[in-house]
Amino acid sequence: MRISKTLLALGLGAALAATSFAQAEDKVVIGFSQIGAESEWRTANTNDVKKAAEELGIELKFSDAQQKQENQIKAIRTFIAQKVDLIGFVPVVETGWDNILREAKRAKIPVMIMDRDLKVSDDSLYVAKIGTDSYAEGRKMFEWMDNYVTQTDRKARNGGDKLNIVILEGTVGASAAVGRTNGFNEALAASPNKDRYNILAAQTGDFTRAKGQQVMESFLKSYRDDIDILISQNDDMALGAIQAIEAAGLKPAQDIIIIGADAVKGMFQAMIDGKANATIECNPLQGKIFFETALKVLKGEPVQKVVYVDEGVFSADQAAEVFPTRKY
Ligand code: GZL
User: Fold this and answer.
1) Which of 55, 78, 182, 237 has the fewest Cβ atoms surrounding its Cβ within 10 A?
2) 207 C-beta closer than 6 A to ligand 1
3) Cα angle at 158 between 154 and 161, to 5 degrees?
4) What global pTM score does this model have?
5) Per-residue pLDDT tens digits for 245-277
6) CA distance 234 to 65
7) Measuring from atom 8 of ligand 1, which residue has the nearest CA?
8) Nearest-CA neighbor of 239 among 263, 204, 209?
9) Across-strand partners of 128?
10) Distance from chain centroid for Cα 28
11) Cα of 155 from ligand 1 centre, angstroms
């Protein structure tokens, strides 16, 4: 039977389209909205997300929100319009997500959360969260500090009966900051040693090195020889604060105890250099478990609603030995 050239062309066209559709069909497409690039930790998190997606053969549409929630909302709306298979994002702040997540739900696109936490009126607006337990990290910051003060029989530099603490907080409204603040404060309030301490000042350094240095400079201007301990809610702000402490003629980790969070390489180096005392790990390497969970979601397999990645605590006396094993 003779097939007309037109029919043949149509048939080939359809076959090609089907093939390309089939290829597209094979590749899972995930839209991912990342907060930005505010810290060493975030950069490690982004690199891990991209590496894991590539290793799992996922087509990743990646968006950097430059710390702005409105940019994340715009990116999620774009992913919906592009009809991606799944949407993932790190919520820069805890609240303000209900509407956009309802739009995703109406479009029947599952949403997963990475790293930070969010507050929504209906937990069915996201299918799973892979993250870090900021509240536990805050408690560990207090516990390490209190143990160290006990072991070294630390006295207030100004001769007073309380050790004065200043706190560099993370981004206002971010679950990582809220969790670490609540964890630290609740551990302090419940401690039999609570009367040893006084929180002299707490201010956001927005998780950045530059802001951490700037806020520490202002703390030193106001309280120089009254400050005994710096609690920094991430290592980047602690590294900035160390510069401010040295510029003020004080010895970081000696005159002022310095405890950070994240356990990034820069903080290990500071501990090796004798300029920081400890850091509470917050593991950014969440990509593999995140995308493996996403693939299960897309296959309709059951997944855990919340999974926390493993996190440790590192002090200066083990920094040199551990440093070579650090991946970020
Ligand atoms: C914590 C993460 C925080 C890090 C900061 O889970 O969201 O954001 O502690 C980063 O370094 O900026």
Assistant:
1) 55
2) yes
3) 60
4) 0.91
5) 999 999 999 999 999 999 999 999 999 999 999
6) 20
7) 42
8) 209
9) 112
10) 25
11) 32
